[in-house]
Amino acid sequence: MKFQNKLFFLLALSSSLTFSQITKPSLSPKIKTEQHVGLAKITLEYGQPNAQGRTIFGSLIPYNKLWRTGANASTKLTTNREIYVSGNKVPAGTYGIYTIPTKKEWTIILHKKSNLWGAGGYNKENDFLRFKITPQTLKDNIETFTIHFENFNTNGADLVIAWENTKMKIPVFVDTDMLIFQEIDDKINKGTGKVNAQTYFDAAQFYYHKNTKLDQALNWFQKATELRPNAFWYEYYKGELAYKMKKYSIARNSATKCLKAAENSKSSDYGYIAKCSLLLKATEKH
Q1: Is residue 53 part of a domain?
Q2: Average pLDDT, the chain
Q3: Residue 61 belongs to what H/E stretch?
Q4: Which domain range does residue 86 map to?
C-alpha cells in the first residue's frame, strides 16, 4: 500500500510539472531557407539571435574561439549538387558551419557532423574544410544575426554572414555552364526521343548568350520556329542572332515576321512590336 501511495505521488508530481511549463517564443528563432544558387538548391538552417544592446564580437562571441555561428543547434548548409565554396570543392551533402572570429580574419569551417548542439561534441578531426576570410566593417549595426545569399549570377552567389557591424562574404560557385552544356548534349545530340520546340529554343538561347557555336544556335532557332510557328518571339531572337552574325537578310526577314505576328496577337505583343521595330531599323543600315 505504501508503494502504491508513493507511486501515485510521483505520477501526480510528474503531471503537475508537465502542466506547469510555460509556452513562450524563442529569443533566437530557428530559420530555414531554401535558395537556388546557379543550378544548385542550397538550404540554410540556423538559430537567429539579436544583439539586444550587447557587444557581440570580442565580448559575447570571444575572439579566437570556436563559434556555432548562430544560436542553439549547429548551423547547417545542405547542397543537392557539387559546389565550390571560396574555391574549394564541396560535394553534395549537409555540413555544419562553424567559425573562429578574430579582428582581422575569420576561419570558416565546414564540418562533417551537422547534428551537434552548437559546438558541443565538436571535433576538429571531423572538419571537411577550413579557410580564412577577411571581414568587412559596416557603418550601420545589424541587430539580428543573419546568413543569406546575395550578388547572384548564373554561376553562383555570395554566402553572407552578418551581425553587429561585421559582414563576411564567401563566394559560392556552381559550374552551371558545364551542367547546361551537358544537358543540351544529352537532350538534343544524344537523345533518342523527339526534341520539342522549347528545348531547341532554350539551347539556342544559351549558346547565343555564351557567344559559342552561333551557327548551331541559329539552326536550333530555325527548328524551334518551324515546330512552333505561333511563338513569334522565337523569330525575334533568331533575327537578333542573325544580325549579330551579320546575316542581315535573315535578320530582316525574321524581324518582319515577328512584327506582323505581334501586331496581330489577340492577347499581347509582349513588347515585341518595339523590339522588332528597332531591329528592322538597325538592318536598314546594311
Answers
A1: yes
A2: 92
A3: none
A4: 25-173
